[in-house]
Write a structure and sequence with these properties.
heterodimer; A: 295 residues; mainly alpha; MetI-like fold; 13 helices; 80% helix; B: 262 residues; 2% strand; globular
């Protein structure tokens, strides 16, 4: 009798313990809906792309990758994308840095207005931006005509690599400026004054103090601009109707074009694009780490 | 010397910002001019392009569709992200680091790459997804996620979450009641600012809309693209109307965040 009661009690104790541990995990339930959606729309597509890039005619192979390296056309798209991304990020970063560093010397009202303006113009991208560029820099665009009249240019083809570069630089400047505003706040006036007191010229100040302090932020911003440019699709698609050979255009035309759908080849190009980005980010991290060692 | 420097800085700032302003201004003038051929200045001004645009039922429909998709995906994102961040910050603060890496994914993976996988995965699903607004709502949630997570997480670190909840518990409130009545009002500004910001670039999203859905459910951006063959004045009026809307959203967002800092 007694033993039975004790056993019963033990049972309820283990049951309630089980219940309380389950209750402890109740908060996890609130993470589940998020996890499901994030998996369905972010993780699963990535996994599909990675796995299927290694499948050619339903068997495991690296045929897709071989096809990329044998195709001058696809390699050209990589070359074009890299060229535009690198130079637009480089020029965009310099212009954004100039803008932000000069802005620090102006009064706070202009500063606030400029931050609001860059915020706004960073949204002027993609299809609307391409249209605006066609209006001002197209064959009969007002700016093209003006520059021709002044004799600055003979001819300007917006639909060529230089036209694309102009367009890309345009959308890199506001983004670069927005990313650099906080970084330039790290440059204290005291440091400049202290350097000046010790006899440094403005040039020496920038080379020895300003630039080393800023270099991690500049490198970090560069990589974000680069990733932004190499993944861009809407503006080049709208500008050239998909006729200019870029990596994103190639990928999209292999999955949603009118003919020759090759999703697995598109997947392989995508994987290479991601690897490229990862490689450039790694170099960047290495440079940032080195710049700290230098100090 | 001082004055010279000031002049230099001013000319750099005004120079670069006027470069940024040229396309916006030109589009604006173009949308207002009755015709502007191969000349540097337009022939005359009129509002007829705006009139034409605002009476085009296709434009109204596309605008309505875009609004529906953006609002629905932001509602979904709020429903999914708010409880998730609360649970992470209250019960498992260590997960914040993991989340900070996870939310980089929508940034790091270009939309074109994601759409390759999405197209193949959901092409033959029993519940039709490709070509419908539902797939866009799901993918737009991932686009908004990084911004919403950062903004809301910042608001969470700004309040004493543990103390507030403990005080509410002491006074007899359940955790969910405390969340709804105490925590949520404290997050309002950060949440709204991130919603307006996300809204402004979801409205400008083109890649997913074009590849996953296309003309089967014409959103604002797709409509804009499809109108490229019509008059440039008409598309300019369209771009300007869209831009005015974006301007309103970013302005509201910046007003809210500035209020937050005070």
């Amino acid at each position: 009798m007694n033993i039975k009661v004790i056993k019963q009690e033990q049972k309820t104790i283990t049951q309630s313990r089980l219940l309380s541990t389950l209750l402890n995990y109740k908060p996890v339930l609130w993470l589940l809906p998020f996890a499901v959606f994030f998996y369905l729309f972010q993780i699963a597509p990535m996994v599909w792309v990675f796995i299927n890039s290694f499948i050619y005619e339903e068997t495991w192979s690296i045929e897709n990758y071989q096809e990329i390296f044998d195709s001058a056309f696809i390699l050209q798209s990589f070359h074009n994308s890299l060229w535009v991304s690198f130079w637009s990020s480089f020029v965009g970063l310099i212009l954004a840095a100039l803008l932000v560093s000069s802005l620090r010397h102006l009064n706070s009202r202009i500063k606030e207005a400029m931050i609001a303006f860059t915020n706004m113009s960073s949204n002027f991208a993609g299809v609307p931006l391409a249209f605006a560029f066609i209006i001002i820099l197209g064959t009969n665009g007002a700016v093209t005509l003006l520059l021709k009249q002044w004799g600055w240019i003979d001819d300007f083809n917006l639909y060529s690599s230089w036209g694309l570069l102009t367009l890309y630089i345009y959308f890199q400047i506001p983004l670069g400026a927005l990313l650099l505003y906080p970084a330039f706040d790290a440059l204290k006036k005291d440091a400049y004054e202290a350097a000046a007191l010790l006899g440094a010229s403005p040039f020496q100040y920038w080379v020895k103090i300003g630039f080393p302090i800023l270099s991690p932020a500049l490198l970090g911003t560069f990589i974000i601009l680069f990733a932004n440019a190499i993944g861009a699709y809407a503006s080049v698609y709208a500008l050239t109707s998909g006729n200019y050979n870029m990596v994103t255009i190639r990928i999209a035309s292999l999955v949603s074009g009118d003919l020759f759908l090759e999703p697995n080849l598109a997947a392989a190009i995508s994987v290479l694009l991601m690897l490229l980005l990862a490689f450039i980010t790694a170099i960047n991290q290495w440079l940032i780490a080195r710049s700290y060692h230098g100090k | 010397m001082e004055n010279n420097q000031q002049l230099l800085h001013k000319s750099i700032v005004y120079g670069i910002s006027s470069l940024l302003l040229i396309p916006i201004l030109a589009t604006f003038i173009y949308s207002l001019s009755s015709s502007w051929g191969a000349t540097i200045l337009p022939d005359g001004f009129s509002l007829k392009w705006y009139g034409e645009l605002l009476t085009d039922p296709r434009f109204i429909d596309a605008f309505g569709r875009s609004l529906f998709i953006c609002i629905a995906s932001l509602a979904l994102a709020t429903l999914l992200v708010l409880p998730m961040i609360f649970v992470i910050f209250y019960y498992y603060p260590k997960l914040d680091k993991v989340m900070n890496i996870l939310i980089l994914l929508p940034f790091a993976v270009p939309p074109v790459v994601s759409s390759v996988g999405l197209l193949q995965l959901y092409a033959d699903s029993t519940f039709q997804l490709i070509g419908t607004p539902w797939i866009l709502i799901g993918t737009y949630f991932t686009i908004a996620l990084p911004f919403m997570y950062r903004a809301i997480a910042n608001s969470f670190t700004a309040i004493n979450l543990k103390d507030l909840i403990d005080a509410a518990h002491l006074l007899g409130a359940s955790t969910s009641k405390a969340f709804l009545l105490i925590i949520l009002p404290n997050l309002k500004k950060g949440l709204l600012a991130s919603l307006f910001l996300s809204f402004s670039f979801l409205l400008g999203e083109f890649v997913f809309a074009n590849i996953l859905v296309g003309t089967r459910y014409e959103t604002l951006q797709i409509y804009l693209y499809n109108m490229r063959q019509t008059s440039g004045h008409f598309t300019s009026a369209l771009v300007m109307t869209y831009f005015a809307f974006i301007f309103l959203c970013t302005w509201l967002a910046s007003r809210l965040t500035r209020g937050n800092n005070l």
